[in-house]
Amino acid sequence: MPKNSEYDNSYLDLCQTRQNLIEKFYKENPVTSDPYTETEIQKSIETLNVGKSPDEYGLTAEHLKNAKSILTPVLTTLFNKIKETISIPRAFKTGILTPVIKSGKNPLDVKSYRGITVTPIIGKVHELCILKKLQLQPGPDLQFGFTEGLCPLMASLLITEAKM
User: Fold this and answer.
1) In angstroms, rounded to a whole number, what is the distance separating the alpha carbons of residues 156 and 154?
2) Planar angle of CA 67, 71, 75, nearest 5 degrees
3) Which of 17, 106, 117, 127 could form a disulfide with 95 if both were Cys (CB 3.0 to 4.6 A apart)?
4) What percent of the chain has pLDDT over 90?
5) Residue 137 has pLDDT above 70, yes or no
6) pTM to 2 decimals?
7) C-alpha separations of 48 from 87, 89, 141 in Å
8) How many Å apart are CA 8 and CA 142, to the nearest integer?
């Protein structure tokens, strides 16, 4: 149960239901794949968009692209270990939340803002590797972790939070 007493319990129930459905789907439709390769990691790094804000560790896509030859073997080992242990590092689930004013809204009203979270760039590379590796058949309606326009990191967060 979350520490915050104002946490929406119905949302927690929804997250737990989604987690159960996703776990059931993967038990019934196991996804097997080969280990990540350095080529896959390099291709994922190459697809990163440059000119974006740094993550909470001060890293940007430019850092990864410029250090690609050094980082690729390390990231390949890391991502394969994540896959083996089925455990996303907590550092991939954090980020810098920045309030952004909604178009045409009063800047003095707190409800006029939406949050944009900059997540760790290495986590983004991991997500890209997952997306390229998985070739899923259409899943249940609640399968959104690897769906275009939705974030695998959020699916991971929902599963982690529902288990806590």
Assistant:
1) 5
2) 150
3) 117
4) 41
5) no
6) 0.63
7) 23, 20, 29
8) 19
Nearest to 79 by CA among 124, 22, 145, 118: 124
pLDDT, tens digit (0-9, with 9 covering 90-100), for 65-99: 999 999 999 999 999 998 888 788 889 888 888 89
pLDDT value for 6 = 59
Return d(Cα 72, Cα 23) in angstroms, integer: 30
Q: Structure tokens of 42?
A: 């390099």
Contact in structure between 59 and 121 (CB atoms under 8 Å): yes
Q: How many residues would you count in the chain?
A: 164
The type of residue at 104 is: G
How far, in Å, are 31, 49, 65, 163 from residue 122 at the CA level? 23, 13, 11, 24
In terms of Cα–Cα distance, which of 75, 55, 78 is closest to 67? 75
Of 137, 123, 136, the residue nearest 95 (C-alpha)? 123
Q: How far apart are the first and last CA of the chain?
A: 6
Give Cβ neighbours of residue 84 (< 8 Å, ≥ 6 apart): none
Instruction: Give dist(CA 118, CA 131) in Å, integer.
Output: 19
